[in-house]
Structure formats: structure tokens, C-alpha cells
Write the C-alpha cells for this entry.
Amino acid sequence: EYKMENTEKIDRNIHFCSYIEEATTKELIKSIVDINIYDAQQEKTVVGYKREPIKLFMTTGGGSVVHTIALFDHIKYSATPIWIYISGYCCSGGFYMLGAADRVIAYEHTQLMYHQLSSDIDYEKLATQKEIVSHREELQKILDSLILENTKITKDKLEEVNSKKQDWWMDVTEAKKLGVIDEIIK
């Protein structure tokens, strides 16, 4: 049985200003799980208890694809609503994570960036390289589905951007039109 370490006071503000990697993902997931456990306990003992949103303040340049997907799932399937506030930049894996939130709020000067999965394949054997490429193609399909299911970005637009093999930078106005964010703070 999992028990939250500190149930006396719950802080619903989480700050994530880092690359998405094992250590940072572990801490963020732990915070989300702890708040969900606290809320579940309160629902059992407090009449009329209502889950207040977790506010995730995020600036990230992206990071590991596997950890991005793990964070996406924990945010998307959190029983407690999660609102993501972005500032500075939200790139790569961070861009994908936005689709999982119940609400995305961006500060007006925030820059967002989407790009196709990228990695270095540095193995000598051709068979190993082919296996890695096949796995990366499957991961790209997962990532594309996250964008297509959670924004207004079309499959044609993704294919166009991917065919150019470039990063797709956008400001908050474009991001709002495309359903990537919900609100702009000015």
C-alpha cells in the first residue's frame, strides 16, 4: 500500500523547470500521485470535498521520449485536474505534454516548439540500427497521435512540418488558434 509522506498540508503548485529525464520525471510523477492520494482520502472523509486543480508551472526544452510519454499519461489520467502554466519556452517533449492537461495557460511571450522525434543511432550492426529505427517509428506514431487527439493540428500539417525536417516554432497566438493552449496571460 502506498502512503503519502506528508498529509498535513498539500501544495498544489508544482514547478518544473528542467529537461525531461528520469530524475525529474520521478519527482513530478510523485507529486501528482501524492496529490491524487490526498484528494482520494479527503473524498472518503470530508463531505462535499472537491478536488482543486494541480497547477504545474513549466519551462522545458524537452528531453527523453519515454519519460515524456510517462508524464503525459500521469497528467492525462490524473483524477485531480491539472492545469499547466507555461513560460519562457515549451519545446519538444514539453509541447507533447500540453495535450494531457485539463487546461493550458501560457504567458504572452512564451515560445513553443514541435519537432519530430530525434536521436542519434550509433551502433555498428545494421540489424541493430534497423531495429532501433523501427522502434523510433512506433514512438513517433504515438507522439503524433498525442498531438492529433489533443489539439486542432491536422495530420496534413504534421506531415508538412515533418517533411521539412525542421523545428516548428510558434508564438502563443498561433498555439491558441491550434488548440495547443487555452489561455494567454498578458
User: Anything to note?
Assistant: The helical segments are 22-45, 65-76, 93-97, 126-150, 155-164, 172-177.
